[in-house]
Automatic annotation (TrEMBL):
Record-given protein name: tRNA N6-adenosine threonylcarbamoyltransferase
Enzyme class at the top of the EC tree: transferase
Regions annotated as coiled coil: none
Residues bound to substrate: 139-143, 173, 186, 190, 282
Cofactor(s) for this UniProt protein: Fe(2+)
Enzymatic reactions: L-threonylcarbamoyladenylate + adenosine(37) in tRNA = N(6)-L-threonylcarbamoyladenosine(37) in tRNA + AMP + H(+)
Residues bound to Fe cation: 117, 121, 310
Record gene name: tsaD
Keywords annotated in UniProt: Acyltransferase, Cytoplasm, Iron, Metal-binding, Transferase, tRNA processing
Organism, as annotated: Hoyosella rhizosphaerae
SUPFAM superfamilies the record matches: Actin-like ATPase domain
Length: 347
């Protein structure tokens, strides 16, 4: 059967289509048929962050065209089921997407599945690397930084720990702003860091002290340290080497994230680590995580960058897994929830 996924929790309108086998040899295998994304990121750039009102309006305008493109790309007139993000995210943005998904489901007479965006970020990996074994997932995005235990398909995710303050992507965006690099900060900082020396400045590794929580993160101290470094350098009348700052900042983030993620997988005795969310696109994080996983004998799975950031395919992927696991469709009266907890997600 085909499952269409609709994502609208932030500034991307995503419509993805997958097919899933419900019986037979390769039962549970999910194949990507279409992945169309329209982003309003350029409209937010001059404000230095996502403006909720602009995002909602952009979803309204992009929804039907993106839906049409995805159906055409998948070569279908209508899917057999619809899955849509109902949280967490921006209230207005979620409402636009979820209302549209319910309307399509009612008009086409197909079942509707309410999806947790964060579970989608993890489930997307199955599109590229096959069904997920029991694993630890590091979810690193613009709004979240969490270590999750994914016991097995069909079971709720367990949050082992999360950031106490800024999300990793948020730290990237704030530091990029500080260095005058524009928004979103991740990709620009990642590129600039390649020209710098990652050992130039010793930035702090938050939450890594002996009494700090094993699976929690903190990035606001790092952000402050970067700000203080830039200020001090200016005050001395010296020029800030932005590439060195970018590389040293990136090293601090990637070091803590990869160390804690690999340690969590080892703690829990699982053989697989999945890294997902926008920051999983980061080149240094991928590199460090790979070498540490190799050393620990853990399989690392990271979706390709396009699937790491928000898209409809990840919602379709989780929807397909739920359907395959025998989940009941959601009621069309299910409400969106901007603060939906990651632990409610089924995968
Ligand atoms: P959430 O999923 O928590 O609701 P979101 O959906 O807005 O948040 P994503 O779209 O998954 O987040 O990720 C966006 C974030 O990823 C931004 O903060 C961006 O700076 C960051 N990012 C993107 N590419 C990179 C990169 N190469 N290196 C570091 N960060 C990156
Ligand atoms: Mg985004
Ligand atoms: Fe996201």
């Amino acid at each position: 059967i085909t499952v269409l996924g609709l994502e609208s929790s932030c500034d991307e309108t995503g419509v993805g289509v997958v097919s899933v086998k419900l019986a037979g040899d390769d039962s549970g295998n999910v194949t990507l048929l279409a992945d169309e994304v329209a982003s309003s990121v350029d409209e937010h750039a001059r404000y230095g962050g996502v403006v909720p009102e602009i995002a909602s309006r952009a979803h309204l305008e992009a929804l039907v065209p993106t839906m049409r493109r995805a159906l055409a790309a998948a070569g279908i007139e209508r899917p057999d089921a619809i899955a849509a993000t109902i949280g967490p995210g921006l209230a207005g943005a979620l409402l636009v997407g979820a209302a549209a998904a319910k309307a399509y489901a009612a008009a086409w007479g197909v079942p509707f599945y309410a999806i947790n965006h964060l579970g989608g970020h993890v489930a997307v990996d199955a599109l590229e690397h096959g069904p997920l074994p029991p694993c630890v997932a590091l979810l690193v995005s613009g709004g979240h930084t969490s270590l999750l235990h994914v016991p097995s398909l069909g079971q709720p995710l367990v949050e082992l720990g999360a950031t106490m303050d800024d999300a990793a992507g948020e730290a990237y965006d704030k530091v990029a702003r500080l260095l005058g690099l524009g928004y979103p900060g991740g990709p620009v900082l990642d590129a600039l860091a390649k020209q710098g020396n990652r050992d130039a400045i010793a930035f702090p590794r938050g939450m890594t002290g002996p009494r700090d929580s094993r699976h929690a993160f903190s990035f606001s101290g790092l952000k402050t340290a970067v700000a203080r470094y830039v200020e001090t350098t200016h005050r001395r009348g010296e020029v800030v080497d932005r590439a060195d700052v970018a590389a040293s900042f990136q090293e601090a983030v990637a070091d803590v994230l990869s160390m804690k993620a690999v340690r969590a997988a080892t703690d829990l005795g699982v053989g697989t680590l999945v890294i997902s969310g926008g920051v999983a696109a980061n080149s240094r994080l991928r590199e460090l995580a790979q070498s540490r996983c190799d050393a620990a004998g853990i399989e690392l799975r990271v979706p390709k960058p396009r699937l790491c950031t928000d898209n409809g395919a990840m919602i379709a992927s989780l929807g397909a897994h739920l359907i395959h696991a025998g989940a009941e469709p959601s009621s069309l009266s299910v409400a969106t929830n901007p603060a939906l907890s990651v632990q409610v997600s089924q995968i």
